[in-house]
Amino acid sequence: MPMHPDSHDLHTVERLRQLERAALAVPGMTGQELMRRAANAALNSLRRHWPEVRNIVIHCGPGNNGGDGFLLGVLAREAGLQVELTALTGASQGDAAVARQAWVAGGGCVQVVDDDDTLPTAELHVDALYGIGLHRAPEGKAARLIEQINGSGQPVVALDVPSGLDADTGHCAGAAIRADVTVTFIAGKRGLHTGRAADHVGVLELATLGVPDSVYADVAPDARLLRAEILPRRPRYANKGDNGHVLVIGGEHGMAGAARLAGEAALRGGAGLVSVATRAEHVFALNATRPELMVRGVDGPQALAPMLERASVLAVGPGLGQAEWGRALWLAALDANKPLVLDADGLNLLARQPRRFSVPAILTPHPGEAARLLGVSTSEVERDRFAAVRELSRRFGAVAILKGSGSLIADPDGRLDVCPWGNPGMASGGMGDLLTGIVAALLAQGCSAWQAGCLGVGLHARAGDRAAQHGERGLLASDLLAPLRALGNGVHDGERDHD
Ligand SMILES: NC(=O)C1=CN([C@@H]2O[C@H](COP(=O)(O)OP(=O)(O)OC[C@H]3O[C@@H](n4cnc5c(N)ncnc54)[C@H](O)[C@@H]3O)[C@@H](O)[C@H]2O)[C@@H](O)CC1
Ligand SMILES: [K+]
Question: Which listed residue, 71, 86, 111, 223, has the most CB atoms within 10 A of its CB?
Answer without folding.
Answer: 71
